[in-house]
TrEMBL record:
One annotated GO molecular function: hydrolase activity
Organism: Roseibium polysiphoniae
Pfam families linked: CN_hydrolase (PF00795)
Signal peptide per UniProt: none
CN hydrolase domain residues: 4-275
CDD domains: DCase
Keyword list, A-Z: Hydrolase
Protein name (database record): N-carbamoyl-D-amino-acid hydrolase
Gene3D superfamilies cross-referenced by the UniProt entry: Carbon-nitrogen hydrolase
Length: 309
């Protein structure tokens, strides 16, 4: 057995007016619970230090800057990294990254239990739009504030396993998992902020949203024989509800743990990475069964084109 005791650290809502310090204090309290439960890996949500700010249309670059981290850890976020190192817990944390040359990404990092940052991922599949959209019930401006990630979907060796990262909307795309699957990934970590209602179809509410979320995560896990740890920022942020439904899913696609609230909540499961082996060596033995001669369109073409009649 190769077990990683893993904590999915769901966060409840973060209001626009909430300070980074208050948020970091909440995150540290969750980390303390993870330590008490014996975890060596903690997974936090997407954009974990702030409210989901892409719902707000901003034109003033100085205002936009307030939501971004120019260094990680910063003075404000360092206490979280210090506590993780003291506890011997590796972390996945999502945040808004502004680089020295002014590029902006929706980013996550992976730390080792010893504290060093060993991996960085930048969100590839950015949903939403870049200008104010009067047709939507509320805005989703990720394409305004972020560039598409430029680091691909790498994997990292940590805690005896092959670890991968993605962020929120990435979980709906089979390519996300498959690129990591082709590198032997054994655990995919992801954080998300998913509005409880579709801004372009109000009849699509929390039940449908949770259904699509589970469907995406469970199929990604099964089809690549990997653990997936999916962690929400949940609840009502300034009148805009987000789904919960944080999940720990095993390499058979089965849900091993699921959150029950829309608040700060911890899920813990001992994830045996050796459970990936059976799927990887049988039905999803890629080397024996994939037929790449038929997959060219996946990388040659972006949008769907119906052939002429
Ligand atoms: N933060 C996200 O990427 N949210 C998307 C919404 C817009 C559908 C998601 O896939 O959950």
């Amino acid at each position: 057995m190769r077990e990683i005791v893993t904590a999915a650290l769901q966060m409840g809502p973060i209001q626009k007016a909430e300070s980074r310090k208050d948020v970091v204090d909440r995150m540290i309290a969750l980390l303390d619970q993870a330590k008490a439960a014996g975890a060596t890996l903690a997974v936090f949500p997407e954009l974990a230090f702030t409210t989901f700010f892409p719902r707000w249309y901003m034109e003033d670059p100085a205002e936009v800057d307030t939501w971004f981290e120019t260094e990680i850890p910063s003075a404000e976020t360092k206490p979280l990294f210090d506590r993780a190192r003291e506890h011997g817990i590796g972390m996945y944390v999502g945040y808004a990254e502004k680089t020295q040359d002014g590029q902006q990404f929706n980013t996550s990092i992976l730390t080792a239990p010893t504290g060093e940052i060993i991996g960085k991922y930048r969100k590839v599949h950015l949903p939403g739009h870049s200008e104010f959209d009067t047709e939507r019930d509320f805005q989703h401006l990720e394409k305004r504030y972020f560039e598409p990630g430029d680091l691909g979907f790498p994997v990292w060796h940590s805690q005896g396993g092959v670890m991968g990262m993605c962020i929120c909307n990435d979980r709906r795309w089979p390519e996300t998992y498959r690129v990591m699957g082709l590198q032997g990934v054994e655990m995919v970590m992801l954080g998300y902020n998913t509005p409880a209602v579709n801004s372009q179809m109000s009849s699509e509410g929390p039940e449908d949203r949770l259904f699509h979320h589970r469907l995406s995560v469970q199929s990604g896990a099964y089809q690549n024989a990997t653990w997936v740890i999916a962690v929400a920022k949940a609840g009502d942020e300034d009148g805009f509800p987000l789904i919960g439904g944080s999940l720990i899913v095993d390499p058979n696609g089965k849900i091993m743990a699921e959150s029950k609230t829309l608040g700060d909540e911890i899920l813990v499961h001992s994830c045996d990475l050796d459970l990936c082996t059976f799927g990887k060596e049988t039905i999803f033995d890629f080397a024996r069964h994939r037929r790449i001669e038929h997959y060219g369109l996946i990388t040659e073409r972006t949008g769907a084109e119906v052939p002429p009649e």
